[in-house]
Specification:
mainly alpha; 0% strand; single chain; 4 helices; 177 residues
Length: 177
């Protein structure tokens, strides 16, 4: 009986080692979120563009300046008056363009913050990808090690049973003489 038990344990150990050798540590299946990629793409596009309506606003300011100058030229009584009024109109145009430039700079800062946030989102996605790879690999390695441990235990128990059988046989046959 002990011989059968030992043989069964050793066969089981060989089978478990064979199963452990078949286990392949996988590559990750996790895919980067298309939403995170889309957010990053959109944020970059906005960052590399001008503030919406910027060109129209610039043209309107310049057109207003040209209209003001035309009105001044028609209504001025002398050159000094025309120059003074045109200087004031140009100063107003310069101030309007400066304000518009400040608005665009604020827009660019917001666009930069959007890109930074989208990059942080992609970094988080890549971290999830890496963690998923590590998790899957750890699961497979643990499974492989558990099978090998069981195989080693079964093999050791089988050897123990064989040793016990040998001692029992020696004791039995040794007493008959």
């Amino acid at each position: 009986m002990g011989g059968l038990s030992a043989g069964a344990k050793m066969i089981q150990a060989a089978r478990q080692n064979k199963l452990a050798n078949k286990i392949v540590v996988p590559d990750a299946d996790y895919a980067v979120s298309p939403y995170a990629q889309n957010t990053l793409s959109l944020a970059k596009q906005m960052f590399n563009s001008r503030m919406p309506g910027m060109g129209i606003a610039e043209r309107n300011i310049q057109a207003n300046n040209a209209n003001a100058n035309a009105g001044i030229m028609r209504g001025a009584t002398d050159a000094n008056q025309a120059l003074a009024l045109m200087g004031a109109a140009q100063a107003q145009t310069d101030q309007s363009l400066t304000n518009l430039g400040m608005n665009e700079a604020n827009y660019q800062m917001q666009a930069y913050n959007n890109v930074a946030g989208a990059n942080a989102g992609m970094t988080s996605e890549m971290d999830k990808l890496f963690q998923d790879q590590v998790r899957k690999q750890t699961m497979r390695i643990n499974e492989k090690n558990a099978l090998r441990g069981a195989a080693n235990e079964n093999f050791g128990n089988g050897l123990n049973d064989l040793t016990s059988l040998a001692f029992m046989g020696q004791d039995y046959f040794g007493k008959k003489k």
